[in-house]
Amino acid sequence: MITTELLEKHGALKKMFAKNETIFGEGNLPSHYYQIVSGEVKMCNYNDDGREFIQGIFYKDQSFGEPPLFLNQNYPANAIAVEGSEVLILPKNNFMKLLEENPAVSIKIIEHLAQRLYYKSVMAVEISTQEPEHRILKLIDHGIVYFNFKKDENGHLINFTRQQIGDLTGLRVETVIRAIKSLEKKGVLKIIDRKVYR
Length: 198
What we know:
Domain HTH crp-type: 130-198
Domain Cyclic nucleotide-binding: 17-116
Keywords: DNA-binding, Transcription, Transcription regulation
Protein name: Cyclic nucleotide-binding protein
CATH topology of the largest domain: Jelly Rolls
Radius of gyration: 18 Å
Number of helices: 7
Helix content: 40-55%
CATH class of the largest domain: Mainly Beta
CATH architecture of the largest domain: Sandwich
GO molecular function, one term: DNA-binding transcription factor activity
Shape: globular
Number of strands: 12
Distance between the termini: 26 Å
Largest sheet: 4 strands, antiparallel
Strand content: 25-35%
Number of domains: 2
């Protein structure tokens, strides 16, 4: 997204977060821009029963939590490290100054936010109207483009756990497992050493 050099030039600091550590909580007022150096971060909510719904998963060089930062609104979800993660953190005022001084970076941020908005629009329709197999394939196909899943002789390795697929599509993990097996039988997905390929 934004180069480390440019972020550090504007005062960004690197911080390590342990697995399952909260980076910011739902309801907090944003004060920083966050970009992943290494690791994986999820934005999620929990319902009254404690069931998790994942809004998005973010990887190396991706940023997260910007919409509330621009709107000066409370975070609508928690940001939690899925694994040990190093994150660049830049104060809001410094971030806004960086964007003012670098129009090309501003365009990049707009494209990034548009991509996420498009994904949310597509998935909202999927979750409300489509069958499990269709939802899962839509998520996987989006992941191939957006998350740059690695490709080898077996196809694209889908870097989501069954639980994450469930949490991203609003499905129970048992339903995800059944749907993936059905898609494998239809020749749409491959399962090799418990890993899913498209």
